[in-house]
Amino acid sequence: MLRDLSYRYKLPLAFIAAILVTAIALAITSAAKTYDTARQQLLVSAERVGAVLANALVEPLRKDAIWSAYLTVKTVAGANEESSDPPVVVVLDALGRVFVSSEPERFPVLSVTTEFAEEGNTRSGVDDHLVVRVPIVPEQITVGEVILQYPRAWLLPPLYDIARSTAWTTIIVLTVLVPIAWFWGRRVAAPLVHLADSMPKVAALPAEQIELPKVVSRDEIGDLTERFRSMVTDLADKREVERRMMTTDRLAALGRLAAGVAHEINNPLGGMLTALSTYRRHGATTDLREKTLSLLERGLNQIKETVSALLVEAKLETHPLSPEDIEDVRTLILPEVKKKHARLIWSSDIDRPMALPSTQVRQVLINLLLNATKAVDEGGDIACTVDRCDGLLRITVEDNGEPIASAQYERLFEPFSGQDVSGNGLGLWVTYQIVQQFHGEISVDSHPGLTQFKVELPVTN
Amino acid sequence: MGVLLRALVVLALLLTLAGRTWGTETAPLRFGTTAVILQDRAEFLTKWARYLGERLGRPIQFVQRGSYAEVGELLSTSQIDIAWVCGAPYVRNRGRWQLVAVPLHQGKPLYQSYLIVPASDTRTKSYRDLEGTVFAYSDPDSNSGYLVPQFQMLEQGLRAGNLFRKTFFTWAHQDTVKAVAVGLAQAGAVDGYIWEALADIDPALIARTRIVSRSAWYGFPPIVARASLEPDLLKAVGEVLASMNADARGKELLNQMRLDGFVPGEDSLFDGIRQINQFVNKHYAQGS
Predict the structure, then answer these.
(1) Distance from C-alpha of B116 to C-alpha of B137, rounded to nearest angstrom
(2) Predicted confidence (pLDDT) per residue in A193-204, tens digit
(3) B173–chain A nearest CA distance, Å
(4) Where are the domains of chain A?
(5) CB-CB: which of B120, B171, B183 is closest to A67?
(6) Model ipTM?
(7) In chain B, which residue's Cα lies nearest the Cα of A67?
(8) Which terminal residue of chain B, N or C, has fewer Cβ atoms less than 10 Å from its own Cβ?
(9) If you average pLDDT over every residue of chain B, what do you get?
(10) Are A118 and A124 in contact (CB under 8 A)?
(11) How far apart (Å, rounded) are the C-alpha atoms in residues A312 and B154?
């Protein structure tokens, strides 16, 4: 939670927290000091009072004048009658029994109290009290003892004062420092925030449109800013190089395509021109005319086929894809598979018509299966899975033939790439065009033992 | 020279005469008080002194001392003229002190001694239950605060010396009530009149005490005069006191004392005290 907070807030908050911690630490220290001083003062004054009392009680003790002794101790205890917790005065006789006390019900006359039993310790803390014991020693003979017990709560008011004054000082200091902390924190955080804001733009905008943060210091943030600036510049350079490479690639592919098309058309053209030349030289025999015309027809048809294969048409008249279409493809491909003594593992969960053009899907399926059949070794395995999931029609065709060579890989979907030994390479080109036209995706994964083509076509509702 | 000398002699003579006249006529009547009435009431005594002085045609000077014995001694040696004393010293000083007046409390010139304990003590029923306690007396010369409890204990076959763990004197009935209320003493004997008056003045204090028993009725502490006081003055003081309830100021002062008035009183009122005094004296004299 706090970790995710922006540095804009984190820094001022940390600053304020430091002030508070300091104030609390100071308050605790001075409170401890005050408490100790107040305790010392109370003990000193208690000892003084005890000494005066001890002196005043010599006569009443000697004469057993309890009432007069009571009035004397009451003047000490009762002087603080206002406070809810007055000090307790207990006077013990020579035998350690209570002679008189300011609270006779708690410490009855002649009773023995163990509450203050602390040998050889004149100052002791009993529960929440400070205890001072002063012996009554007229003429070197101890005749009794005065015990004064002050509640510790008496030491608290100075502590409250400390707490109050510390609180006020802290509030005043905070009032002054919080705006400063806020301003300072934001200033320190600003380059970081600027960096953080600029980073996402790097991917989205061209380098010229990114407002680069300025290097204002030589610390880590300055360092980071410097690196960011050089990174953006490098990135822009790299993009330029990539762009040029892409252009080069595109031109190369175009060249290959042109060469392929020229080759495909040139072949029948050569034959046809030769036939025409022969026809002209040997004259118009019926036999030769027929032969020439048929050759011309075949040659033109071949050119037509080539051209129509290149122009994959999306808007063919077609019906929705049905389970029978899938089954037809299986029937069509089975003789090819059997020729290679391969095994076809077939799986389809298409059980009702789908909103996809059957002709194109069939073409894709046939192309992929023919390729697999071509690639598989004698007695190999071919697997075809057609299923639907998440609004997609998914076609997976796998074989365990030789994997696709890495050189082939790059130009797999290019027509006339010259890679295909057994065909013109138009099958995958057509497949790719169809998949693109239906906004689907095609992917290839090939490694020893398994080559997988996967096609996903979104089903329109 | 001759004229001056003559003038001086005349002046001296005049001063002497004037001094004597002033001295005899305005010498204050010294009135000793003890703890038989509520103490710490300087304002009341001032008012009462002014009232009595005006009625008597002579200033009144109140004299207070710490114990009954001191006031008694002052009276016996004519250092004061009249005193409000306890019945016990009165019967013991028969012939030396003259009876001036006896106060009326609740219509009678009589009062009782109360045995009191702290209100928290709900168990004690008589002296017999007070064994091993600390007991508060008021004054060794007090009737209600010392003599009566001595008598009552002896009557029940008890002796103070064995019964209590400790005893002490507070030198005032009021303080005996306080000592019992705060628990300094577990019991005490007080003047019933003082206890009742305190119940009116300081109910919170009285609420902390409980009356265990009330004694028989005895003569109320009387106002007495030194034996040598002139009969006219004796009579005049007695009449001024007896007529206090006849005027508003006097009534107000009596009300402040929680008294109904003063009567001349008979010596026989104090026969009860005399009897118990003799009983106690005889008992200890025999050593039984």
Answers:
(1) 11
(2) 888 888 888 777
(3) 12
(4) 7-159, 269-310, 320-458
(5) B171
(6) 0.82
(7) B170
(8) N
(9) 89
(10) yes
(11) 141
Q: DSSP characters for A210-246?
A: S-PPP---SSHHHHHHHHHHHHHHHHHHHHHHHHHHH
Q: How confident is the model at residue B20 (pLDDT cuts 50, 70, 90)?
A: very low
Which option is the CATH number for B113-215: 3.40.50.1000, 1.20.120.790, 3.40.190.10, 3.30.70.100?
3.40.190.10
Q: Indicate the pairing of strand B218-219 with strand B209-214.
A: unpaired
CB-CB neighbors (< 8 A) of A67 in chain B: 136, 168-171, 175, 179, 184
Give residues with Cβ within 8 angstroms of B35, minimum separation 6: B68, B138, B139, B142, B171, B172, B173, B174
- The answer, for B183 touching chain A at a CB cutoff of 8 Å, is yes
Chain B residues within 8 A of A112 when measuring between CB atoms: none
Q: Which of A61, A62, A63, A67 should be substituted to probe chain B, the one whose Cβ sees the most B Cβ atoms within 10 Å?
A: A67
Best B184, B186, B209 member to test A by mutation, with max A CBs in 10 Å, is B184
Quick one: CATH architecture of B2-109+219-279? 3-Layer(aba) Sandwich (3.40)
Q: Where are the domains of chain B?
A: 2-109+219-279, 113-215
Choose the closest CB to B168 out of A66, A105, A108.
A66
Q: Is the pLDDT of residue B5 over 70?
A: no
Distance between CA A302 and CA A296 in Å, rounded?
10
Q: Given CB atoms, is B175 within the 8 Å cutoff of chain A? A: yes
In sequence order, the 6+-apart residues with CB closer than 8 A to the CB of A64 are B168
Q: Which residues of B touch A65 (CB under 8 A)?
A: 168-169
Alpha helix positions (H), A376-460: 406-410, 426-437
- Residue B217 forms contact with A (CB below 8 Å): no
For Cα atoms A92, A93, A95, give the angle at the middle one, nearest 5 degrees.
Answer: 110
Is B119 in CB contact (< 8 Å) with chain A? no
pLDDT per position as a tens digit, B31-57: 999 876 775 678 889 999 999 999 999
User: If we measure between CA atoms, which residue out of B231, B240, B114 comes closest to residue B180?
Assistant: B114
Apex CA A226: angle with CA A225 and CA A227, to 5°?
90
Chain B: residue nearest A66 by CA?
B168
Q: Choose from A63, A73, A106, A109 for mutation: most chain B CBs within 10 A.
A: A109
Give A402's DSSP letter: P
Describe the crossing of helices A66-78 and B173-182 by its angle, rounded to 10 degrees: 60
Among A66, A108, A110, beta carbon nearest to B183: A108
Q: Tens digits of per-residue pLDDT, A421-443?
A: 555 667 888 888 888 888 899 99
Smallest Cβ–Cβ distance between A104 and the set B165, B170, B182 belongs to B182
B165 touching A, CB under 8 A?
yes
The answer to whether A412 touches A425, Cβ cutoff 8 Å, is no
CB-nearest partner of A110 from B134, B170, B175: B134
Give the architecture (CATH level 2) of A320-458.
Answer: 2-Layer Sandwich (3.30)
